[in-house]
Amino acid sequence: MKQLPSLPFSKTYTREVSFEHTAAALGNPGVNVVSTPHLIGEIEFACTYNVMPFYDDDDATVGTHVCIDHLAAAVPGTPIKIEATLEEVDRRRLQFSATITQNGTVIMKGRHDRFIVSKAKFEAMSKP
Fold first, then answer.
1. What is the CATH number for 17?
2. Considering the entire predicted model, what is its pTM?
3. Total of domains in the chain
4. Is 54 among the domain residues?
């Protein structure tokens, strides 16, 4: 991995959410709010894209830990904002804090760890 910027390093992403991202779409009828799994995926996306510009050719990151609080409902049709902040680097472990908001309300916040891996080694290991 190339030299990372000074810590903490934050980026914010705006993402659209729709009915297909709801708990109802995942099989929980009548719960027409953005699902917890989808929001966790948005945190993974934001943390990955935060450091992707610093990858070397064979670099990738994989999630290793998620610790979040889901604090409020997010409704489909209104964009969400995800702020991912790289807080700490310990060799190949990257630790982020992340917050998702919608219209100024904190929807989810927490911590996410990712680990830098070799794409070639990881792909070879994951083949059946």
1. 3.10.129.10
2. 0.93
3. 1
4. yes
Asked whether residue 55 is domain-assigned, the answer is yes
* Alpha-carbon 124 to chain mean position: 25
Please determine, for residue 128, whether its predicted confidence score (pLDDT) is greater than 90: no
Condensed to tens digits (0 to 9), the pLDDT of residues 66-87 reads 999 999 999 999 999 999 999 9
**Around 28, how many Cα atoms within 13 Å sit in the side-chain half-sphere?**
13
> What is the model's pLDDT at position 122?
85
Residue-number span of the structural domain to which 23 is assigned: 9-126
Q: How far is CA 59 from the centre of its chain?
A: 18
SS (H, E, C) the chain: CCCCCCCCEEEEEEECCCHHHECHHHCCCCCCCECHHHHHHHHHHHHHHHHHHHCCCCEEEEEEEEEEEECCCCCCCCCEEEEEEEEEEECCEEEEEEEEEECCEEEEEEEEEEEEEEHHHHHHHHCC
